[in-house]
Amino acid sequence: MVSIYLLLILAAVIWAQAPSSPVAFRQENNIPPQAKRPAPDLTPEMRGDILMARKMYREAVEMYSTTGSDSAIIANKIGIAYHQLMELEVARKNYERALRLDPKYSEAVNNLGTIFYARKSYRKAVSYYNRALKLKPNSASIYSNLGTAQFARKKYKQALEAYDTALSLDPEVFEHRGTQGVLLQERSVEERAKFHFYLAKTYAKAGAVDRALLYIRKSLEEGFKERDKFQSEPEFAKLQELPEFKELMAAEPRVL
Question: What share of the chain is helix, strand, coil (3-state, %, to 5)?
């Protein structure tokens, strides 16, 4: 009887000292997990922007058109999509519609300028860029476009002035790439060698040595003939003692 009594006491002690974690673990499992916040729904405009970034321009037009919004921004974006499809007349109509909705929308004015630039109506393009700058006077991209239009008119002094201003407003303005957004920046020029000479001159004047050297090289590779200008133009004076500059002047780069 005593042994049975002792066994019962021992069992009670062991049970009392047993860890309670299994019970706690089951209780924790009964706590529902916190619900994840659902991702915000993309608007048709946001979806259109994604399609533009993927260069799916016609699909972007369809998506923008589902917004049902009488918005200058949407009209302008539809114009850019058609512009990328080279349907310039449809693009022009959408830019003009954007301006009817918002007469002070500088981006649409600029983009109209790019339509006339593409049609080689450079004087009219200059007029639109100047009009856009009155609405948005600190836009480096518009100054860049103005410079390119003046360059196309062979107004090189005015082109250089516009480029200088553009670079002072945004040191990366000539390096921007991409077509999405609300403002187009013109990149097509016929005299690429001379265009890169003027970019080299602009960078040299601003003290951006590496980029000045890069565009000197590009201009030479594209067949720029007036090599003596790199020695005589005052903007290049500070480069002339650099080994890289001397190497460029001594080399005969392969014309691409």
Answer: 70, 0, 30
Tokens of 190: 């016929």
For residue 47 the two structure tokens come to: 């979806």
Picking from 216, 129, 142, 205, the residue whose alpha carbon sits closest to that of residue 176 is: 142
Q: Which residues contact 167 (CB under 8 A, 6 or more apart)?
A: 140, 173, 174, 202, 203, 206, 208
Kindly give, in sequence order, each residue whose CB lies less than 8 Å from that of residue 52, ignoring residues fewer than 6 positions away: 60, 77, 80, 81, 84, 179, 180
pLDDT tens digits, 180-214: 567 777 666 778 889 999 999 999 999 999 999 99
For the chain, the distance separating the N- and C-terminal CA atoms, rounded to the nearest angstrom, is 109
Q: Which residue type occupies 102?
A: D
Cα dihedral 162, 157, 189, 215, rounded to 10, equals: -80
pLDDT per residue as tens digits for the range 226-252: 989 999 999 999 999 999 999 999 887
Stated pTM of the model: 0.77
